[in-house]
Amino acid sequence: MALDDRIVITGIGLTSPNGNTLAEFRQNLLDGRSGVVDYETRYMGPVLAGVCNFDELRYQKRKEVRRGTRAGSIAVYCSHEAVNDSGLDWANVDKSRVGVYLGITEHGNVETENEIYEISKFEYDTKVWSHHHNPRTVANNSAGEVTLSLGVTGPHLTIGAACAAGNAGFIQAAQMLRLDECDIAIAGGVSESIHTFGIFASFQSQGALATHSDPTKACRPFDMQRNGIVVAEGGGICTVERLPDALARGAKIYGEIIGHAMNSDASDFVLPNATRQAECIRLAMSRAGITADDIDIVSSHATATEQGDIEEGNALKAVFGGTKAVINNTKSFIGHAMGAAGALELLGNLPSFDDGMAHATINLENPDSRCALPNLVANEPRNLGEVKCILNNSFGMLGINSVLIVKRFES
After folding, report:
1. pLDDT at position 1, please?
2. How far apart are CA 104 and CA 235, in angstroms?
């Protein structure tokens, strides 16, 4: 691959239910510390959720927070953190050459539910409806709020890709950098999902909403006692650059994006398809010029739904059975952060390039033989000694699959 086509990650910003910096997030993953808590949501009462606790006012005024959205606040916080971490001389960066590409699962539900609730107090008089509703609910909102906050005048896209969206943000960034549409990309995924009661109610109606007397044990991928999804909010955003630009300014390089792929199942609204997932994984590896034997860590998507875990397990066994690759899961710690899931799952694993550790899948007490995986890292982190290549697997409703492969940078 030509030097100008090599794409690297140079800055990281995140907020998760168990950490607001990469160091804090990583340590809690290695320590087995869950961020799932009891939560109250409108009309449903007590549920379980992954809730973030970051400083909304670090980069926004109160007026900006009130005018905008929760997803926007998460995106603004994480983007500023990523830019600060990157070491870019932001004041002198040509903002017309910066692009913002953020994945999201759904957007507008929170704002619409809130407005309907407010007008219900006034006999549904639409005069009470907020004039901020339209900019809050347009599909480009999260990335657009970032451009306003950071003064970015280059292109921006909010990418609707269900729960494959975190990877999709990075994939879009890599493509736009290679097309010379921008010189710096701010990329990743965000989620405000816990603030809409509808997502909890829908999963409950589907029989796919997790319950447990201990919130920290509620999310149980691959376990016989798993009973559904723990909804979470969060954000994982990076600065992404072409390698020569990063080298020229002496940037810290967290990893190199060497392969990616997206495809569609075309088979069911919600049920994943193991065959299509395996095809997506193989396509990403082919584009990266590697084989399954080159992968050290597979970051699984596993949502702790019965058939979802089985289908993904079949896909991963088909591709990685008999290889050295270990498999772990991040949702078991924080729940399902929807549009941010893939991004947070990747970022939680990136420090493996430095410390050689693979964090565990927690709450795995009675493995389900129907989705038993070779080399699944269960309950305790595993020291691999050296990690060179991570594959991040994500998929979502309406049969969308995404795979991102990141390699330890070697000059």
Report:
1. 65
2. 10
Cβ atoms of 238 and 251 closer than 8 Å: no
Extract the tokens encoding 254. Answer: 């967290």
- Locate 152 and state its tokens: 């970015």
Question: Could you tell me the fold of the domain covering 259-407?
Answer: Peroxisomal Thiolase; Chain A, domain 1 (3.40.47)
Helix (H) or strand (E) holding 66: helix 62-67
Q: Where are the domains of the chain?
A: 3-248, 259-407
Number of H helices, E strands in the chain: 14, 15
pTM of the model: 0.97
Right CATH for 3-248 from 3.30.200.20, 3.30.365.10, 3.40.50.150, 3.40.47.10: 3.40.47.10
Please say whether the beta carbons of 266 and 282 come within 8 A.
no
Q: In the chain, what is the greatest distance between 2 CA atoms, to the nearest angstrom? A: 65
The predicted-structure confidence for 305-363, as pLDDT tens digits, reads as follows 999 999 999 999 999 999 999 999 999 999 999 999 999 999 999 999 999 999 999 99
Catalytic residues: 163, 301, 336
Please state, in angstroms and rounded to a whole number, the distance separating the CA atoms of residues 65 and 371.
43
Ramachandran class of 98: left when φ > 0, alpha when ψ lies in -120 to 50, beta otherwise: beta
